[in-house]
Amino acid sequence: MSEPVDVDVIVVGAGPAGSAAALTLARSGRSVVLLERGPFPGSKNMYGGVIYGRVLDRLVPEWITEAPIQRWVTRRSTMMMTSTQALTIDYRTESWGEKPYNGATAYRPDFDSWLASKAVEAGATLVTSTTATGLLRDEGGKICGVSTDRPDGDLRAKMVIACDGVNSFLAKEAGLYHHGGVEHFTLGAKETLSLPKSVIDDRFGVRGNHGVDIEILGATPGLAGGGFVYTNLDSISVGIVVSLSDLQTAKVRPEELIANLKAHPAIAPLVEGADVAEYSAHLIPEGGYKTMPELYTDRMLVAGDAACMCLAAGLWLEGVNFAIGAGEIAAQMAIEAVRDGDVSAQKLSGYQRRLEESFVLADHRKLADAPEFILGDRMQNQYPKVICDAVEAMFTVSNPTPKAGLSQHMKAAASKHGVKIRHLLKDARTASKLFG
Amino acid sequence: MSSFADIDFEERMATVEFRVGTRAHITVDSNVCRSCTTKSCVTCCPADLFVPMSDGGILFNYEHCFECGTCYMVCNNEGAINWTYPDGGQGVVFRRA
After folding, report:
1. Is the pLDDT at A1 greater than 80, yes or no?
2. Per-residue confidence (pLDDT) for residue A315, from 0 to 100
C-alpha cells in the first residue's frame, strides 16, 4: 500500500451497480472515480423493462419523486402462449401505483444517468467516454488500478470495483470467471414502439402514470427463452430473450423472433400501427447463482451483471435491484478494507458473506436451480401447449358430452404433447421447492 | 419466419444512434472463418453485421455494432473474432426518453 494512488477506489462502469457503489463510497468520504465508457451513464444499457426500487428507499430516499421513471407497474401479467393460444394470469393492484410503490418502467439511459448524478452530488468523480482496457498490477503482481484508453490514462487506486457489465473483461482478466459458457447467457432484443399515450392507456387498460408489464413463456417457439411487453409513457417495448446456445443452432435471427411475437394474436392488437422508435440488443447473464464468478480477489470486487446477478427465475425477473444492492455492499466492504489498510482477498471475503446475508445472494441461492428449470425443454416447449390445451378443453362446452374434470383435461393434454405424469409430478415438486 | 419482418433491416438499424469511431473494435479473421461449418455469427448477431462470402469467409463491418458480445460467445473457432469495446464515447448510444 506504499505506492502512490490517484484515488481510494476506482469503480468501473456507471450502471446501477457502479453508481450505487460510487455513491456509497463518496458519502463515506472516500475518493472515488466512476469510469464510464459511454458518453453518458446508461448509454450502453438496455433491459427487459422493470426496475424494483425498494432497494433505493434507504440509499436514495427521494428516488420516488426524482427518478426518471416512465410508469408505475400496476398490472403484472404472466402469459403462456403457443402459436395460436395464450393463457394469461393478470394481476392488478392500485397499491403499486402509490407509495411506497413497487416496480417502474424506465429508459435505462435516463435512469442510469440519474443514479450516477446522485453519486456525483455525493462527491464521486464521474469520468465518461473512457474505456477501461485492463487491470494494472504492481511489481508484486497485485491489482493496483486500471488502464484506460485515454492518453496517460493509467489510474491507480487502493481497490477496484468491477461493475463493467455482462462481458466483464476485468473479472475475466482477473481469472474470476469459471462458468463463461454460452449456455449461461441469453440475448435480449427489443423494439421500442411509439404510440400516443391515450392509445396505450386504452389498449392496456391503465390510466395516468400506471403501466403494465407482460412476461411471456413460449414466445420463442422451439428456442428456450421468453418474451415481454411493457408500457412506457408514450411508447411500448416489446422484445424477446433467447438462449444463446439455442440461437447458435436454430438459424433464426433475433429480429425475426420479435416479429413473430408481434404477429401473435394476443400481442398484435397491442402493437398495431406502432412505428419502431428504437431497436436494441444486449446479453443477459441468466445462469444465476451457480454460474457466478468469484466475487472478490486481492484488491478487487465484482458486482452487477459483471457478477451474473441477474435473476431470471420465471416468476421473478430482476437485475437492476440486485446490481444496486451488490454495489452498495461492495462499497461498504471497500470502505472498511481501505480504512483498515487491508485489501487482501481474505479481508474482502467479507463481501461474499455480506451478500449471502442480504437479499442479493439469499434470493439467488434460493433460486439457484430456477434458470435451468425455466429454460428446460418441458417448461419451454411442452407445458405452454399442455396448459393451453387443457384450459381450452375446460372452457369448451362439449354438449351433449358431459363435462370432464380439469385433471382429465390435463392428462389428455399431457399425453397429447408427450408429457408423462411422472414428469408433471417431478416438475410440480421442483416448482414447489423453488417457489414455495 | 422471416416473412413476418415488418420493417426492412436498414430501416431498423437507422433507429439506433451510433457514434462511429475510426478504430474497428472488432475484427474478424476470414481465413479462420473459411474452415467454420456453423457460422453462427451470421444469424445470431442482432445487428446482422456478419456477411457470408462466396469464398466461405466472413465480411464484417464494426460500425453499427451493439457491443453485446453475442458473436464471440457463439463463435466456435478460436481466433476468428478479436473483440474489444469501442474507444470511450464511441459506438452505440441508446436513446433517452
Report:
1. no
2. 85
- Rounded to whole angstroms, what are the CA distances from A43 to A85, A163, B10? 37, 15, 21
The nearest alpha carbon in chain B to A253 belongs to: B43
User: Mind telling me how many Å the CA of A26 is from chain B's nearest CA?
Assistant: 24
Class at the top of the CATH hierarchy for domain B9-94: alpha beta
Please name the residues in contact with A24: beta carbons below 8 A apart, sequence gap of 6 or more. Answer: A59, A327, A328, A331, A332, A335
**Residue A134: Cβ within 10 Å count:** 12
| A167: closest chain B residue by CA | B69
Cα A161 from Cα A331, distance rounded (Å): 8
- pLDDT tens-digit map of A283-297: 999 999 999 999 999
* 3-state class (DSSP) for residue A277: strand
Domain ranges of chain B: 9-94
- How far apart, in whole angstroms, are the C-alpha atoms of residue A394 and residue A406? 6
Give dist(CA B54, CA B65) in Å, integer. 23
Tell me if residue A257 falls in helix, strand or coil: helix
Question: Of A278, A222, A82, A275, which is closest to residue B16 (Cα–Cα)?
Answer: A278
Is A183-285 CATH 3.30.9.90?
A: yes
Where does the pLDDT of residue A49 fall: very low under 50, low under 70, confident under 90, or very high at 90 and above?
A: confident
Q: Is the pLDDT of residue B3 over 50?
A: no
Chain B nearest C-alpha distance from A135 (Å) = 15
Report d(CA A225, CA A243) in Å as an integer. 6
Cβ-based contacts of B23 with chain A (< 8 Å)? none
In angstroms, the CA B56 to CA B46 distance is: 21
The grid cell for B95 is: 436513446
Residue length, chain A?
Answer: 436
What are the residues facing A302 on neighbouring strands?
A162
Residue type, position A381, single letter: N
The correct CATH number of A7-71+104-178+291-367 out of 2.40.50.100, 3.40.630.30, 3.40.50.1820, 3.50.50.60 is 3.50.50.60
Give me the residue spans of the domains in chain A: 7-71+104-178+291-367, 183-285, 376-435
The whole-angstrom separation of Cα A375 and Cα A369 is: 10
| Chain A residues whose beta carbon lies within 8 Å of the beta carbon of residue B74 | 182, 244, 247-248
Q: Between B44, B85, B88, which is nearest A247 by CB?
A: B44
Give B15-69 pLDDT, tens digit per residue: 999 999 999 999 999 999 999 999 999 999 999 999 999 999 999 999 999 999 9
CA B27 from chain center: how many Å? 10
